[in-house]
Write a sequence for this structure.
């Protein structure tokens, strides 16, 4: 049976939610930012702003040049997450085969359920109507319908905003012919450039390329590319009930200009280590491989290295010490950095690790548990490292993938 | 433009079975009653164990942001958007 996949993509999500909350913003070009200063970036633009060529990721100064009437709004991540949970609750009523792909995107496999709702188009219309009624008139979604995730996303993108797009079998040859490979989900600029170098420009070119060649060039991903080029996509959904265990836990932070001096960036890194450790304790994992890196300049090179701990840990101080070791191995010693990050991999469930033998380690475990209890009760900002008081609290990211799947806590 | 207020208020609320949150019908601020004519958005926030419901509502042509501490049942008028 041919699959029926729905790709739900919320339109200009963060900006739409802000316009829903504040009618005075409706119909106006708005840019959601981390902080409404010229040195910040636009993390989401409203439809009106997009019409004036304001795009996600654009520096605020540039956005204001493109659209002098742009209204800057500080993002509210908790608000967006709360609305995401509401729309996911609506989607769960339609199928259990629901993959929450990001804070504003989801896939539904409705192969079995579509006919009960009068077909996939009727179902998509009903979902969009419920979003308008239960979330608000400004919070709209575009829904793409196809037999696979990649094509559902592609056809949805072509019907944005506030639309429904369906790809029927007979339309596939024309789509393959006319679609540049760079338009396809998962094919980024680097892969696109590599494909272009060998004369592959459209999906049809991809389908005509030799499977062996693509496998040799891109490994297993090459087989997926070949399949897409032939108009097929068997990529399975990862239902929210069946999310695989994490492979790593990490956080990174783009630094505002006043925190770019390396010693201040280290304080931010210390906080990030603490955040990573707290998340790992909440998830019930310890890790051994600590990766740390930084970026020099806003579009400069990224430097990173990793080290392996003797024993798995879920302690922020241990991760920070490991980061200092890693940073010492990186030959570049910049005075300023624009981004720092840490991630911990090689994870093992905490209940499968051995009991700490040293009293000092056991004390630290007790301390971490006590701090977790205080933070659970009074909020994450209630206990902080003394050094981190030298810088203002690290704001939550607003854009992209700031939300880890465990933040969504969808069950 | 959002003007911060942060003052405790009395609220008149309707609880409907099956609804994701209680419905704010009116509130009293500075000895004046404000009838809610539209609910723009309601979202949840959390600070440690304390859960809040944040309401963005319209009355008399203005938008008001109110916060309900769901544990204590206390309402606060957080801000006023006088632009509508």
């Amino acid at each position: 049976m041919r699959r029926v996949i729905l790709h739900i993509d919320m339109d200009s999500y963060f900006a739409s939610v802000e316009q829903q909350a504040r009618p005075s913003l409706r119909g106006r070009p708005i840019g959601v930012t981390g902080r409404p200063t010229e040195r910040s970036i636009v993390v989401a633009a409203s439809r009106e702003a997009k019409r004036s060529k304001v795009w996600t990721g654009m520096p605020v100064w540039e956005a204001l040049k493109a659209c002098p009437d742009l209204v800057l709004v500080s993002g509210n991540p908790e608000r967006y997450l709360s609305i995401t949970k509401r729309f996911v609750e609506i989607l769960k009523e339609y199928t259990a085969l629901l993959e929450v792909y990001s804070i504003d995107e989801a896939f539904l496999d409705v192969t079995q359920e579509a006919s009960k709702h009068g077909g996939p188009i009727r179902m998509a219309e009903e979902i969009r109507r419920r979003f308008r009624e239960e979330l608000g008139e400004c919070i709209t979604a575009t829904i793409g319908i196809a037999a696979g995730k990649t094509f559902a996303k592609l056809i949805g993108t072509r019907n944005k905003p506030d639309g429904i797009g369906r790809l029927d079998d007979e339309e596939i040859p024309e789509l393959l012919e006319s679609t540049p490979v760079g338009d396809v989900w998962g094919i980024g600029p680097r892969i696109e450039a590599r494909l272009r170098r060998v004369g592959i420009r459209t999906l049809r070119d991809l389908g005509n390329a030799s499977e062996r060649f693509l496998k040799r060039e891109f490994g297993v991903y090459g087989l997926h590319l070949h399949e897409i080029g032939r108009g097929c996509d068997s990529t399975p959904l990862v239902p929210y009930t069946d999310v695989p265990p994490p492979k790593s836990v990490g956080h990174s932070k783009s630094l505002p200009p006043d925190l770019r001096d390396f010693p201040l960036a280290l304080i931010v890194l210390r906080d990030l280590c603490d955040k990573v450790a707290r998340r790992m304790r909440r998830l019930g994992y310890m890790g051994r491989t600590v990766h740390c890196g930084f970026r020099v300049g806003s579009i400069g090179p990224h430097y990173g290295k990793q080290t392996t701990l003797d024993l798995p840990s879920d302690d922020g101080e241990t991760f920070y010490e490991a980061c200092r070791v890693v940073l010492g191995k990186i030959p570049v010693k910049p005075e300023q950095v624009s981004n720092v990050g840490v991630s911990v991999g090689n994870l093992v469930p905490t209940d499968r690790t051995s009991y700490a033998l040293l009293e000092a380690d056991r004390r630290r475990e007790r301390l971490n548990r006590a701090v977790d209890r205080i933070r659970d009760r009074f909020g994450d900002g209630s206990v902080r490292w003394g050094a981190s008081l030298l810088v203002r609290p690290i704001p939550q990211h607003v854009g992209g993938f700031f939300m880890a799947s465990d933040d969504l806590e969808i069950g | 433009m959002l003007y911060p207020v942060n003052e405790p208020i009395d609220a008149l609320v309707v609880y409907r079975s099956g609804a994701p949150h209680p419905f704010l019908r009116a509130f009293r601020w500075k000895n004046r009653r404000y009838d809610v004519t539209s609910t723009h958005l309601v979202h949840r926030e959390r600070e440690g164990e304390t859960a809040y419901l944040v309401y963005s509502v319209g009355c008399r042509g203005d938008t008001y942001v109110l916060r309900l501490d769901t544990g204590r049942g206390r309402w606060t008028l957080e801000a006023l958007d006088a632009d509508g």
